[in-house]
Every structure is written in C-alpha cells, then in structure tokens.
Amino acid sequence: MQYFGTDGIRSLINQFPLNPQGCEFITLGLLQYLKVHKLKSSYRVCIARDTRLSGLAIQEIFKNTLENSKIKVEVDLLGVLPTPALALITQKKSYDVGIMITASHNPASDNGIKFFSNTGYKLNDEAQTIIENIINQECSKKHLTDDKFIENTFETSIELNKHAQFYQQYITSIYQPFSKLTNKLRVILDTAHGSNYAIAESLFKQLGFTVSTLFNQPDGLNINQNCGATHAQALGQAVKQEQADIGIAFDGDGDRVIFCDETGMVVNGDKIIGTIGLLLAKKAQKQPKNGSNVKQTVVTTKMCNTGLKQQFKAHNIAVELTDIGDKYVMERLKEINGTFGGENSGHLIFLDKGFTGDGILGALEMISLWQEFHPEQTFSALVNQIQLYPQHLENIQLISKPPLEELSNLQQVLTEIRTEWGEQGSDLIRYSGTENLIRILLEHQDENQIHSKLELIKAALIKDGVVG
Fold first, then answer.
1. Residue 288 has pLDDT above 70, yes or no
2. Which residue in the list 54, 104, 195, 345 is annotated as catalytic?
3. Cβ-contact 96, 118 below 8 angstroms
C-alpha cells in the first residue's frame, strides 16, 4: 500500500496526504468505495476524532466533501471518542462507514485516518486499494498544492456526549456483574491526554473502582507527550507511590492498553497476552461445550516471544501467528472463529465483545479474569508466571526504504545469524507501517548474543545505505 500502513493512513500534518487537498482526495476515494460496494441512493457516515487540534479541520474537510458530492451522504460528527467506540457505533447504529481521525500513539504533529465498514471492522485491503487508486488519479489530474489547515481553538469537556454514553453503557453492561469482584481495587489511569481522557475515569468509577487519573487534560497538542501506552514509566512511579493495585495506560485513540504492576514495573505485552490466554483456557475448562473441552487458540503476531509460545504449548493452547498489525490479528480471528488475540504493543482483541483493539475493554477483561481466578495474588505475581526469552527491539530512523530482500549486506548477516542460532533465538526485521523507521527485533536465551548480533545488523544496514 502507498498511503495505508498497518493501521490506516498516517503522516505529518500539512504534508500530503494529510494536508487539506490530500484529505479531499481521500474523501473522494471513500465515495468511490461507497459507489462500488453499496448500491444505494443515500449513505450515512459518522466521524469521530481524538484530541489533536488538527482533527477539527480534517473532519470539516471530510464532512464538506461528502455532503457536497453527487451522491446523498448524511454525515454525523460524534466528537472526541476512542476508536473502539467509533467502531461499535458504526455497527450498532447502522452507519455505512465510520471515520476515525487519529494518529494513535504518534505525537500531535501527526494525524491519520482509520476507516470502519458497517460491520464495525476496519476496511479490508481491497477497499483500501480503491481509495488509493482514486487518490493517485486525483494527483495526476490536479496540481498539488502546499495548502495548510486553518488553526482552530481546542475546547475540552468532562461531560460525556450521547455517543460516549452509548459506549460506556455497552461496556458496563458486560462488566457490571464483576463489580463485586473488583470494587476493592485501587487503579491509576493514564489516558495520554487522548480520547479516553473523560470516559475512562467515569466508566471505572461507575464499576466501583477507586480511581486516580494522570495525563487527562488535553490541550490539542499534548497527546501522547511523555505519557500513555508508549511512555508508561511515570504511571509506574505513581502506582508505586500511591500503593495502587494496578496502573493502566492507554494510547491516544484508546485502542491500546499497557499495564504497570503494584511495584511500578511496566508489564511486557507478551506477558499480558500470555496471562489472559491461560486464564481464558482455564475458564473454557470450567464451561465445556457439548460435554467436551474446546482447545483454546490465541492469535498474535510474528513478534510473539518464543518463551510465550512454549508456555502456550505446555498448556495445550494453540498459537496462530500473523503479520504485524491488529487488523491481521482480527482477520485471522474471524477466519478461525476465535475469540482472543492481540499484539504485544497493547492491542487486545476480544471478538465476542468488540470489533477492534479496545484499551478499556482489554483492561477490564484482564482485571475480571484476575479477580475471578486468582484474587489472592498481586498483579505482579499473576503476570510473572509467564517466562519470556530476553528480547530487544530497536527502532532506527531511515534514509531510504528499499525492499529488505534487496539489501545484500543485511541478508548475508541474517543468514549467518540464523544458521548460528538455530532454535535458540529468532529475529524479525521490518519497516514500520506507520513511521519512517526500521524495526529490529532480536530474541535469544543469552542476552549477550542479542547485543553482539544487533551491532552486526546495524553495520550491515549502514553498508546498504538505508541508515546513517
């Protein structure tokens, strides 16, 4: 894909395709998708956004372009909402398309677009190709401008609008029965100054938790700024100081969640997937279908830690591995009729309850399983039962981005490493789907091996001319 990455379209603000003209072209692509796939006389589209200041201007371009098109389109602006709420509302309220304006965990200098179909799931690759083809057609027909968005004033409110209330009611209807289990827990929420800034605190309090909240005062520019799921260290410190039971960090659009235990340690995402997988398997054993136990299957990505895979195997839990990106996890879950999957970055998907990664739902599912099966344990004791191989992820800024298979020095070094390591280690080298980075993931029982081989890979990338 030229414009779509692993999680929608994303770029710097006022840089094509996230400038006014580019957003118009994207909207024209969406209109073409509607024409191709839905033989109707009129359509309904809903638009939500995170707390980036630029989202206000982007939503106006989408709204105006859709409403002024030759086909009849009714557009509803839902305001600031987490991505999973937008997905839920798109499906439950029978919209033809839901548009989420967000750059997720990226800084406020970026923004992006995620599209959801009337099923509540993200648009597939075929639909994205239709949109990209129209963008390129418009680029070839028109002179590209360097126009910029008009600045807006950002206003916040702790009052939940009717759309946020609808999402909150849906989540509480699922987890209200567990409130007797969890109402003694003290939690600290880090909302990343993002989409969950108002709704998370309200929802957790309604379920009976004792709640403190950090980083929940968005100003349009501070989203994800040294906080949230990608910077949970400050949350960990607060959890330890306030003697809370657990810390919960969301990202900018609320589709990821990362945890801190009661000691203040940030919990590895694979440990969360492993813990939930084991607890769901235990739950399935208590509730056999048709008189026989059903083998639990967990869907995750190729970044899954080898130690986690070994523990799943020991507990008779099957593991399905996909390409990087929560949409691929979702697609595989639907193909196998599975219920749980996720990425170690914090996307947790429960297909029997939601349509996409959901930070709030993921946090509540984790806590309810913990309290149902091991309420006597601290959170650290629970998650540290998952033993992982040492792992290191390095992100390096790129000069250029040729196909990895064409990098001769890199391929030679990787062949040598794989031959030497065998089954004692693994590597995953890939370009980021959302940023101009190459991601190097190395895993081995011996940490010294990881660091020595990382230097060899970096040297090869320099020789190949893709990094400085």
1. no
2. 104
3. yes
> Tens digit of pLDDT for each residue in 421-441?
987 888 999 998 778 899 999
- What is d(CA 366, CA 178) in angstroms, rounded to the nearest whole number? 12
List 426's β-bridge partners, or say none.
Answer: 443
Name beta bridge partners: 9: 4, 113
What would the two tokens of residue 411 be?
Answer: 């391929």
Clarify whether 104 is annotated catalytic.
yes
pLDDT bin (cut points 50, 70, 90) of residue 129 is very high
Report how far residue 267's alpha carbon sits from residue 271's, in angstroms, rounded to the nearest whole number.
Answer: 7
In the chain, the domains with their CATH numbers are 4-141 (3.40.120.10), 183-260 (3.40.120.10), 269-383 (3.40.120.10), 391-464 (3.30.310.50)
Q: How many CB atoms lie within 10 A of CB 431?
A: 17
Q: 208-240 pLDDT, tens per residue?
A: 999 999 999 999 999 999 999 999 999 999 999
Rounded to two decimals, what is the model's pTM?
A: 0.90
Query: Measured between alpha carbons, how far is 24 from 68 in angstroms, rounded to an integer?
Result: 11
